[in-house]
From TrEMBL:
Organism ancestry: Bacteria, Bacillati, Actinomycetota, Actinomycetes, Streptosporangiales
Classification via Pfam families: DUF1015
Organism: Nonomuraea typhae
Protein name, as recorded: DUF1015 family protein
Length: 437
């Protein structure tokens, strides 16, 4: 019956990227109002971004009202700022729905893709493939933001295989044609030296060609698992509260995404390191000796070089003083720890071994948000944080892109915070609000 039980959600007929009326900043220096993705922004970064421009998008994605305010009050402030900026003309809606070509460029780096509304699909539909599990806390936080602001404020990053047996896909070739032959809507350079440029594709014929090419393909969620899970939860909630839903789709049936052809623009995949403040470094190394070969290094950089060349699985434990390289785990202990229901490929991932063997069996703990902190990319920063907290940094080599794609294609998900794909889209170049879709 309508309105009873779990609502039936629309099922897209393939990978769909719908045009939308983008909301963009109308300011003299577009770079000054942008930010990194919300989950890469530290508390100190928030203030620096606010100092760069009073209308920086961080005021929307990470609002900072008094600490005693509830989530509803906190995100109410973001909603009010968004509405005020639209009224004041700080933010302006584009008149015509578009798919946006987005280019990031710097010496030695170039990535192009399409920003649009991706049709939401359940994992079992094998259209949009997650490769990581999500935690309930971040999903609840982003749900509070999206449902309060009625907006998608930053795109997730999706990768797809754009080659076919005979020729490069039309969507990918059109992206390059637009970026090389048409004037951009905006082109700006951020403080890290990256140029960000945006073009609008509004021609229905070109949009049709793009979607005809994309429809039979599958996309991997490279960055934004929690936001995609939030898109799906908001979609469920919106359909559940409508006792007589229309046959058409609503704005909550789509989510803001950057879609990149990974054959044309291979991604940069970096590691995410762990820091365990409550585990002293020397105690961690000593306890590992019962199941791993442990080599000691007095110099962190020498240890990092050894880790880079080590046969997987391998981990470098670092913090204050020496560092310790873990290699060659005991085969019997490793086999007993790894879940039999998982594939051999999944069980061989270094993050799987860390999650299922090292943390619970060697150190008697779980890889959770309470006890284990994460540091993106920077091994030296991870070691510094461990030293400052009297704990242990677990430094990992990055997974291979092919490993992640193969695991996702089989319907499995790597452990949380296993991958950091880049380049990530800059937040604030184009926003999406529900009331104008």
């Amino acid at each position: 019956m309508p309105g009873m039980g779990t609502p039936e959600l629309p099922v897209p007929d393939g990978l769909v990227l719908r045009p939308f009326r983008g909301v963009r900043f109308a300011v003299a220096d577009p770079a000054a109002v942008t930010s990194p993705p919300y989950d890469l922004i530290s508390e100190g970064d928030v203030q620096a971004l606010l100092d760069s421009h009073p209308n920086n998008v961080v005021r929307l994605i990470l609002p900072r009202p008094p600490a005693d305010h509830s989530p509803a009050e906190r995100y109410g402030a973001a909603r009010d700022a968004l509405r005020a900026w639209l009224v004041e003309g700080v933010l302006v809606r584009d008149e015509v729905p578009a798919l946006y070509v987005y280019e990031q460029s710097a010496p030695g780096m170039l990535q192009r893709g399409l920003i649009g509304d991706v049709g939401l699909a359940a994992p079992e539909q094998r259209i949009v493939l997650p490769h990581e599990n999500v935690m309930p806390g971040p999903v609840a936080d982003r749900l509070a933001l999206m449902s309060t602001t009625r907006a998608n404020l930053e795109p997730i990053l999706l990768l797809y295989n754009g080659d076919d047996p005979n020729a490069r896909g039309r969507a990918s070739t059109l992206v390059d044609e637009v970026a090389t032959a048409r004037p951009p809507l905006v082109s700006t350079v951020t403080a890290d030296g990256v140029r960000h440029s945006l073009w609008a594709i509004t021609d229905p014929a070109e949009i049709g060609q793009i979607n005809a090419d994309l429809r039979p393909r599958r996309a991997l969620i490279a960055d934004g698992h929690h936001r995609y899970a939030t898109y799906r939860e908001l979609q469920r909630q919106e359909h559940a509260r409508r006792t007589n839903p229309s046959n058409g789709s609503g704005p909550w049936d789509f989510g803001l995404a950057l879609l990149v052809d990974s054959d044309a623009y291979p991604p940069d995949l970096k590691a995410i390191h762990r820091v365990i403040p409550g585990l002293p470094l020397e105690a961690a190394a000593e306890r590992a000796k019962g199941s791993w070969q442990v080599a000691d290094f007095t110099d962190l950089r020498a240890g990092l070089t050894a880790l880079e060349h080590a046969t997987e699985p391998a981990f470098l434990l670092a913090g204050a003083g020496t560092c310790h390289l873990l290699t060659s785990p005991d085969p019997a202990q490793l086999a007993e720890a790894m879940p039999a229901e998982r594939s051999a490929r999944w069980n061989a991932l270094n993050t799987s071994i860390l999650t299922e063997f090292v943390l619970p069996r060697v150190w008697d703990m779980q890889d959770d948000e309470r006890d284990v902190r994460i540091v993106h990319h920077d091994a030296l920063a991870a070691a510094d944080l461990a030293a400052a907290t009297g704990g242990t940094a677990v430094i990992l080599n990055a997974l291979a892109v092919e490993e992640v794609l193969a695991v996702a294609a089989e319907g499995e998900r790597v452990p949380r915070k296993s991958t950091s794909f880049g380049p990530k889209p800059r937040t604030g170049l184009v926003l999406r609000t529900f009331d104008i879709d």
